């Protein structure tokens, strides 16, 4: 029977495979060379919306191979703790932080257990690009994020827009394919054999279970977890080639240039723990 444990295990196995591909960064998607040269890899969206990180204690949920965790430290954070459930991703993250000479701590575990794993008194919880779709239970995710924050601490979130995720991302034209909200008990079963970086290396364990979440579901969960929404923004760019026709701008974000209509490719919000 397929259940939450099966979904979790399959997704973690898949992310272990992807982490090993991503760290090699054959085509530069992850910007490892720039990071090793001292760069900061956060997108213009995050750079514009994050507060001054000087002196802040930051929890980075779903830190993957640590590229953004290292970048957050370089933006002045006093402390950065990255959390991820993929042991392979964390091996690479620790190695990368060492090679970058940045002091970042990485902890293995499920985001839904985050407060117990990393603590409850962070100034900022940061999570971005490809995170919430790995959870069916959004209220549980929001409680975990809020639970890592001290009162007055802030959650920052940026990800693909729910409207953009309704389309088949493999087709040049926009074919509607997915409901904008996925029921918790029936995740979308995916079987991508190649990862989003453009690497041609095959993912050995392609099966994953994912969920689409409308903005209402997400924001109501955040409010229900005791947070006050500070802002919600929608953007025309996203940091990966979400559609075949998307092209990369000078700022590194991919945008579509469809002559028919414009629609948002990503969104972001911040919320404060009350
Ligand atoms: C798209 S990546 C992270 C995004 C980040 N912007 C990046 O590219 O470095 C998604 C990450 O979520 C992690 N992940 C998925 N489900 C998780 C869970 N339940 N708990 C902790 N980490 C999880 C995966 O291991 C993966 O590293």
Share of helix among residues? 25-40%
Spatial order of strands in the largest sheet: 3-2-1-4-5-11-8
Mean pLDDT: 95
Rg (CA only) = 18 Å
Number of DSSP helices? 8
Total strand count, please? 11
Strand residue content: 15-25%
Task: Tell me, briefly, the overall form.
Answer: globular
Structural class: alpha/beta
Taking the alpha carbons of the first and last residues, their distance comes to: 40 Å
**Low-pLDDT ranges:** none
Q: Describe it for me?
A:
This protein has 274 residues and is of the alpha/beta class. The protein contains eight helices and eleven strands. It has helices at 4-24, 32-36, 44-49, 67-74, 87-99, 114-118, 138-147, 215-224, and strands at 57-61, 79-84, 105-108, 122-128, 149-160, 188-190, 208-210, 227-235, 247-248, 254-255, 266-273. The strands form three sheets. Strands 3-2-1-4-5-11-8 form a seven-stranded mixed β-sheet, with helices on both faces. Strands 6-7 form a two-stranded antiparallel ribbon. A two-stranded antiparallel ribbon has the order 9-10. Helix 7 packs across helix 8 (215-224). The protein is globular and about 45 Å long. The termini are far apart. The mean pLDDT is 95. The structure holds S-adenosylmethionine.
Structure described in brief:
By secondary structure, the protein is an alpha/beta fold. Helix content is about 30%, strand content about 20%. S-adenosylmethionine binds next to helix 1 and helix 4.
């Amino acid at each position: 029977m397929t259940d939450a444990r099966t979904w979790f295990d399959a997704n973690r196995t898949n992310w272990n495979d992807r982490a090993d591909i991503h760290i090699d960064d054959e085509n530069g998607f992850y910007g490892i060379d720039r990071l090793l040269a001292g760069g900061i890899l956060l997108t213009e969206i995050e750079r514009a919306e994050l507060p001054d990180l000087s002196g802040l204690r930051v929890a980075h949920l779903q830190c993957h191979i640590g590229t953004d965790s290292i970048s957050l430290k370089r933006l002045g954070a006093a402390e950065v703790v990255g959390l991820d459930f993929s042991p392979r991703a964390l091996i690479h993250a620790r190695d990368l932080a060492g090679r970058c000479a940045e002091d970042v701590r990485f902890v293995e575990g499920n985001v839904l257990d985050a407060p117990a794993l990393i603590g409850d008194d962070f100034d900022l919880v940061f999570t971005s690009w490809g995170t919430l779709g790995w959870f069916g239970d959004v209220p549980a995710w929001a409680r975990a994020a809020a639970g890592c924050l001290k009162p007055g601490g802030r959650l920052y979130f940026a990800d693909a827009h729910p409207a953009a995720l309704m389309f088949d991302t493999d087709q040049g034209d926009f074919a509607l394919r997915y409901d904008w909200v996925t029921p918790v008990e029936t995740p979308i079963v995916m079987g991508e054999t190649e990862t989003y970086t453009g690497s041609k290396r095959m993912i050995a364990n392609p099966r994953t279970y994912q969920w689409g979440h409308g903005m209402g579901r997400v924001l109501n969960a955040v409010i229900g977890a005791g947070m006050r929404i500070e802002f919600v923004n929608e953007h025309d760019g996203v940091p990966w080639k979400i559609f075949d026709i998307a092209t990369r701008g000078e700022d590194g974000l991919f945008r579509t240039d469809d002559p028919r209509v414009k629609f948002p490719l990503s969104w972001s919000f911040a919320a404060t723990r009350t």
